Amino acid sequence: MKHDNQSTIVCQIELQSLKNLREEELDHTTKGLPFGARITPAQVRDRGWNVLKGDLPFPLLVMKESALEHNLREMAVWCADHGLLLAPHGKTTMCPQIYERQIAHGAWAITVATVSQALVCASFGISRIVIANQISGASNLHSLSELLNSQREAELYCLIDSVDGVRHLAEGLERYGARRPINVLLEWGRKGWRTGVRSEEQGIEVWAEAARHSHLLKLCGIEAFEGLASSEDSDDEARQVDEFFIGLRNLGQRLRADWLPNDQPILSIGGSAFLDRVIRLAPQVSDEFRVVVRSGCYVTHDHIQYQHKQAASMARGRDTLRIPEFIPALELWAYVQSMPEEKLAFLTFGKRDCPHDLGLPKPLFAIAEGDGLSRVRDLSRSAVVNLNDQHAYLALGDGEKLEVGDLLCFGISHPCTAFDKWRVIPVVNDDYEVIDLYRTFF
After folding, report:
1. Would you tell me how many other CB atoms lie within 10 Å of the CB of residue 25?
2. Structure pTM?
3. Which ranges constitute the DSSP H helices of 36-159?
4. DSSP code of 50?
């Protein structure tokens, strides 16, 4: 009983964190804040900082409030219009302030990828959490059991895709004293892709094994991730996703008889890169399943990878489908620090500051420190050609000129590997005045 009380007290204290987050003081040991800063997010608007005036040290990742709010609203309306539940993937941002806004816009749950990320969500009061992954290992299973016991009202979900995995999960929950079952979704996969069963027969076998552990595992539906579809031909990518979804739908129909007549199990899919395929699948299964999409990158979008995916979805659905149109919300700012060769500038950001796994940052514009936005200079002919840990190599296009000390603005590719490099991200208005500071918990 003492252990239970301690767990409950810890959770109650942690659940105050979202309320207190705006009052926690930050200082210049936080990347992106200037010397001598001792400030809370609640105070930052009154400080009057402006990115264009050089009030914050670069490199600096900022988030534009107008784009963020647009994306939140656009996705919420689109899901509501099509009868979809949204469980946005929180591992993209690991930012409780964004989670709060996603839920305020109607999100059904927050999705994560690990038990550690689920603990962050639970600590900030998220009551429905989808761990879109299989769970293994003593510490993870111990933490999951404690979470189930201490957060009695919370809905927790995770994935299963093998008989061995089911037994490992159930035995771990038993060993560490879980007093209620976790909701599980059977994952559908594809050969050569990632996790998930590779056939309907394997899925039925895994499902049957989970049913044998019903005191610890509650079967709630099926799940899949289509984002690994890849081809230089957009239509071929779409065909891969359609075939994948047909397999998911067929598996679901074979398992449907296991639910009570009034139950409506979950069918969950990714959704970020192939919204046109999602909206074709949904009407085929919505009578029998609650369709849950787990899009994560929509909330800030980007200038390269997801911009390209959005354009492809919109092109495929231009005649019959309305695809939500998102706006890039993240920008990376840097100074020119050296120009030792003609048409080559070295900048003050590197691999520690920006994503580089799905494309290097995209130059947008340059501006002299203190100038207004009416004096920006286009950099669309320039390109980042290399990154070191703390340096970017910018090859200048014809007719483009820079000077040491110029401010440069870049778009990024892949939000998931941008957020994890920043503990604090300034939120700015369209005039680049800092209006908030958002925390991340990686």
Report:
1. 10
2. 0.94
3. 44-47, 65-81, 96-104, 115-123, 138-150
4. B
Looking at residue 52, its pLDDT comes to 97
The predicted pLDDT at position 318 comes to 80
CA distance 292 to 84: 6
Structure tokens given for 28: 């210049």
**Residue 363 lies inside a defined structural domain of this protein:** no
| Residue 109 domain flag | yes
Question: Which parts of the chain have pLDDT scores under 70?
Answer: 1-16, 260-262
User: Could you say which DSSP state residue 360 is in?
Assistant: P
Q: For residue 147, give the CATH number of its domain.
A: 3.20.20.10
What is the extent of the structural domain holding 302? 64-316
At 166 the pLDDT is 98
Sign of the torsion formed by the C-alpha atoms of 201, 206, 209 and 214: negative
Which token pair is 122? 């639970």
Classify residue 226: in a domain, yes or no. Answer: yes
> What long-range pairs does 37-45 form, CB within 8 A, spacing at least 24?
39/437, 41/436, 41/437, 41/438, 41/439, 44/426, 44/434, 44/435, 44/436, 44/437, 45/433, 45/434, 45/435, 45/436
**pLDDT at residue number 262:** 65
Residue 391's SS3 state is coil
Q: What Cα–Cα distance (Å) separates residue 352 from each residue in 8, 165, 390?
A: 38, 36, 7
For residue 332, list its beta bridge partners. Answer: 61, 410
**pLDDT the model gives residue 342:** 92
Are 63 and 425 contacting, i.e. CB atoms less than 8 angstroms apart? yes
Q: Say if 127 falls within a structural domain.
A: yes
SS3 of residue 58 by DSSP: coil
In this prediction, residue 184 carries a pLDDT of 98
Q: What is the pLDDT of residue 261?
A: 61
- The bridge status of strand 330-341 relative to strand 60-64 is antiparallel
pLDDT number for residue 260: 59
Q: Partners of 155 in the beta sheet?
A: 128
**Nearest of 320, 332, 316 to residue 273 by alpha carbon:** 316
Split into its structural domains, the chain has a count of 1
Gap between the Cα atoms of 282 and 290, Å rounded: 9
